[in-house]
């Protein structure tokens, strides 16, 4: 009888240890408080009731996926980029070409061209520059053929969007450390989905990736990001709901360094640009991360349908975290492709990726000439 009780007790201990191990593997523990205090002495007050998050695109979920997917290559994405933009942006291109196709380009025609560009969120400054450049070329070169006028429009649009900007994702670290990419943006832009899709882009390029779920105010965001990672065999570091985002980001980079990972992608909470305290906290995340490894890229995610409000977001985020690149989501659902020009002019940094649809691989590197050609059909 005694022997039987001993066996049962041993089984309980083994079973309990196994369950504890599974739980520990499912959610990594954050560094102890004394370690975090050593990282930074900054303290950011959290609101008792954080601003609610609008739902990101619902590609993720909490159900684990056992099959590792093979993401689409960048070349395949670019083919679909042009096809989708040609369908959705056609109204803008048709409007521009219809004006320049007229036999007589009088003042009324040029004003109509300006109105078309402004309606597409190109912005007042870039619109004025483009129309002035076109009027000068038409006059100086004696352009009276609609086809030549259209060719001139294409050249000026490409110059306006910019072919000399460095649109490469800075995902390579130094001194053997991983590249660190922070992804920031306000609620509802599809930010968490963008991080998941960006992981797929990097995996397709042969990079190893660690995801940091630093959006701790919304448990669904961490669940969603973890599912994205599982689909391509990428680990996700997450913390307790409502925990310190900076500590999660810190642990993700620490894990990336320890495992020799190529890139660490950190998803931050959807910051409302009108909440100064939350913006300060975002700055804290960046400073804490850089105590271990330099942040190589800060990508600002903007919903292309928000128009001029997206420029306000860009301006505020640029003041806080030194944005180095822009991701435009939902570009396929709007005819206002001019936001590409406007946001680059406002922030002085390039659009590096565009989101095109609802699919897992509907995030493509941005190419100025491909974009303009699709715009003009």
Description:
The protein has 377 residues and is an alpha/beta fold. It folds into 2 domains: 76-161, SRP54, nucleotide-binding domain (Four Helix Bundle (Hemerythrin (Met), subunit A), Up-down Bundle); 166-368, Rossmann fold (3-Layer(aba) Sandwich), CATH 3.40.50.300. It has 14 helices and 8 strands. The chain has helices spanning 2-26, 33-39, 74-88, 90-100, 107-119, 124-140, 146-161, 191-204, 219-231, 245-259, 276-289, 308-321, 339-347, 368-375; strands at 179-184, 209-214, 235-238, 263-268, 297-303, 325-329, 351-355, 363-365. An 8-stranded mixed β-sheet has the order 3-2-4-1-5-6-7-8, with helices on both faces. α13 (339-347) links the parallel β6 and β7 (351-355). The model is unreliable at 1-65 (pLDDT under 50).
Give a brief description:
This protein has 14 helices and eight strands.
Provide tags for this entry.
8 strands; disordered N terminus; Four Helix Bundle (Hemerythrin (Met), subunit A); alpha/beta; 377 residues
